[in-house]
């Protein structure tokens, strides 16, 4: 799926856009699954607005922004589980992470037209710090994403700077790191943007008349352990590729609620 040059690009820049990881039919299946989650959430009155809060946008504007965000999507619909372990996906992951790859968590991010919420620039590292920094996001595009509908933006090479102080541990100072200065990653439905959890990224408001739907899977190398007891999601540690050299070290505990 990718060449050695792509692997070098990822190592140098901290991100890689891979075209055509999923075909039209697979994209359609995931779009339907996203709609299903939104419909069931509305029915069960669990339909929260997950838009980021903070001073990175004027308060009046922030009030209008909407984000449909749900975690653990592979527990909502089987199409996402198929995507998590899709052979095209694992082909890329094993080249940029190594033979043994685990899922950390999954989520969906739907930015509705006109007022789809922005993401201030941030690193994912403070949310789930790990020892070896192998953690990366694979953001699966379910729509064409461009500057108008708030595509992902990255700061190439920023993963090499290490972890930076975040405002209230959520995002970077927006005056120092304005969203618009990130490199826009224009993508088609079916493309996947891979980026390391130290790579600075974010996205602008969706001001277009088009929805921007993404599903995001976080993966890590199987012997890369968390350094803090934070951010536990269902399915954390599922083997996506290879074998688990340390299975005795981790035992998930579940509580039925
Ligand atoms: O999808 C986006 O626009 C941003 C997602 C993001 O920054 C995140 O989930 O950490």
Automatic annotation (TrEMBL):
Family: Belongs to the PhyH family.
Superkingdom in the source lineage: Bacteria
InterPro entries recorded: PhyH, Phytyl_CoA_dOase-like
Protein name as annotated: Phytanoyl-CoA dioxygenase
GO biological process, one term: fatty acid alpha-oxidation
GO function terms (MF aspect): phytanoyl-CoA dioxygenase activity
Coiled-coil regions listed: none
Pfam family, one: PhyH
Alphabetic keyword roster: Dioxygenase, Oxidoreductase
Gene3D superfamilies with a match to the protein in the record: q2cbj1_9rhob like domain
